[in-house]
Amino acid sequence: MAIPLLFFSCTNNQKDDAKDRGDALYTNNQSPLRENPYIELPLGSVKARGWLKQMLMGQKEGSTGHLDELYPKVMGESNGWLGGNGDQWERGPYWIHGLITLAYTLNDHELIEKTQPWIEWILDSQKPSGYFGPDTDFEENLPGVQRTNAADWWPRMVVLKILKQYYSATQDERVIDLMTNYFKYQLETLPEKPLDNWTFWARYRGGDNLMIVYWLYNRTGDHFLLELADLIHKQTFNYTHKFLETDMIKDHERIHCVNLAQGIKEPAIYYQHSNDDKHIKAVKTAFADIKKFSGQPQGMYGGDEALRNNNPINGVELCSVVELMYSLETILEITGDVQFADHLERVAYNALPAQITDDFMERQYFQQANQVKVTREHRNFSLNHGGTDVCFGLFTGYPCCTSNMHQGWPIFTQNAWYATADGGLAALYYAPTEVTAKVGDGTEITVEEETNYPFEDNVRFEINIPEGKQVSFPLKLRIPEWSQSASLMVNGDEYSTPEANQVISINRQWTDKDVVELKLPAQVELNRWHERAVSVDRGPLNFVLKIDSKWEKVNNTKDPDRYGEYYYKVTPQSPWNYGLIDVAEDKIQEQYELIRRQNDGSFPWNPENAPLEIKTKARRIQNWKLYNGSAGPLPYSNQYGAKTSDEVEAITLIPYGCSNLRISEFPLVGNYHVMR
Ligand SMILES: [Zn+2]
Asked: What is the pLDDT of residue 467?
């Protein structure tokens, strides 16, 4: 797919001020916006391989490819975004955002065809005023169908993200016209009908709207867009102020968990125009505070609707997981800061795979870091949906996640490679992929990234350049913060041993079939959490207690319209109340023995196929028991006089992302640290 070079810089003759920065290969920010270090590639440039390809194919065969059949009352022809009189709020757009990204990433014509009627209806729906989308306010919601607030700004923000993806894959110019007219309508209408005119969601999620306004500005240079951007920023919940100058996070002020995951990127998005470091400081402060006061080892935070403290039985909503990933990918492009890539891998490789079944047919509304029983009962969450919130099903808990979860892996795949502002390519997080993109003098090359990462420490890149040409460009690779002995080889020769926590740039003239090998050895680390419990971490992976579990399908005759006709419960068949034996710092590596298991290419994200295990020792804590369906209050670590069994047992830990039931935060037992 040879796209003329000029295509991507054709905007700079339209408006004089929007100065092109010479990055003729891909569209960077235009003046006065800051230049970004990394640029998203056109959708379809990055393909998945290995386990990631299996994951995406699972989505196609599973609920992502079939949600219209599985959830017809919302995703069928009656959907308002297809012109029907049914659901007209966020759910249809949520699904299509994931589906369209999957469809073009797989270049799957069947899936592309499924998205097209939505795109066509949306593009045809625009009125002379610039308004688009459903326009009829029905008096009432039908059960499980959202039919009010037709004009709400919020679902349109999701639709704008869909249209950006569609344009990225197809360059259909109708998108540019629709957005331009809609943004004129927004500029005219927002002063009277601000973001929270219909519902409060848009005020917390205005960053998504702002992001697309800048995206369009970079393509058209229309100055009214900067005026609109400032207006949207002013009407959006003031995250910068809240993060920097208040105790909102520390005090677990009632903020909605998904709004936080989604809104955390707003200061970084606005930073592109403000150029004021306080906006990046706000984001970094927020991440540090969230970890400290609400954090869990899988990279998420207690947020079962409301933001909660760091107790590992507090729920984590699936929408928060995929939205936090989207936020981290966006912030990464703007800042290039390694901490956000490290964090992204942590969420993607721990929280996300754990919350959805291998066949991509069932998911949990809430997951728990310490999750010992997946059953229908009321837990100590800030909100319960008939006790179904942790059960695996397509409709347990609440159906936002049913619709929104599809974006996680496809967008993660898309952003596994960025173009760089200096004409190169960057892999800021690692996964089995391949990228086809233009570099240097505009030559289109392919880089194959061969790895079983995160289950393997080595990543191998092979550069493929057509017709024996040579081409100069920088290849940028992230060295994670946890990687203290990284090494890099080029064509079999040692190239460097880079320090941790940086992005390195390999600048050279590349030849077809050049090979770069990156080794990122990791060590087991123990990290402290709630009640001084520890998590066992190695590289991007958190390791959790492997609990034998029994899956049972439960027919739901009580309230099938609400929570589905069936769901799955998972109960433990082996003990979970273990404390880890405390040992001195210099004994940790021998106390936690890493075992690499043969993997024949089977899907790795389940307890049976987990490619890595850690063996260690533990004692049972006899009075650590169930409480309201969850692991009871965590015994304080190194509790003096703890009621533990005499027997020291060998236990097996597996990656969090491979687990269904688990202990992720363990109390420490034993005497080593007792007097500290
Ligand atoms: Zn949700």
From this structure: 87
Residue span(s) of the chain under CATH 2.60.40 come to: 418-451+458-519
What tens digit of pLDDT does each residue of 299-308 get?
Answer: 999 999 999 9
Going from the Cα of 574 to the center of ligand 1, the distance in angstroms, rounded, reads 31
Three-state secondary-structure class, residue 214:
helix
The per-residue b/e assignment along 383-421, b for 16 or more CB within 10 angstroms, e otherwise, is: ebbbbbbbbbbbbbbbbbbbbbbbbbbbbbbbbbbbbbb
Give me ligand 1 centre to Cα 305, in Å: 9
**555-571 pLDDT per residue, tens:** 999 999 999 999 999 99
Average pLDDT over every residue of 300-324? 97
The rounded Å distance from CA 365 to ligand 1 centre is 6
Q: Which residue has the tokens 């928060």?
A: 320
Taking the centre of ligand 1 as the mean of its atom positions, its distance from the CA of residue 551, in whole angstroms, is 23
The residues, ordered by sequence, that sit 6+ positions from 222 with a Cβ below 8 Å of its Cβ are 15, 180, 216
How many whole angstroms from 401 Cα to the centroid of ligand 1? 3
Question: Residue 671 — pLDDT band, cuts 50, 70, 90?
Answer: low
Pair of tokens at residue 90: 């966020």
What pLDDT sits at residue 641? 83
Residue 650: strand, helix, or coil: strand
CA distance 416 to 428: 7
Q: What string of DSSP letters covers 497-535?
A: -PPSSEEEEEEEEEETT-EEEEE----EEEEE-GGG-EE
By the 10 Å C-beta count (0-12 exposed, 13-18 middle, 19+ buried), 143 is classed as exposed
404 alpha carbon – ligand 1 mean position (Å): 7
Q: Which CATH architecture has domain 418-451+458-519?
A: Sandwich (2.60)
pTM of structure = 0.96
Instruction: Give the distance (Å) from ligand 1 centre to CA of residue 620.
Output: 35
Q: How far is the CA of 610 from the centre of ligand 1 (A)?
A: 27
Between the CA of 549 and the centroid of ligand 1 the distance, in Å, is 26
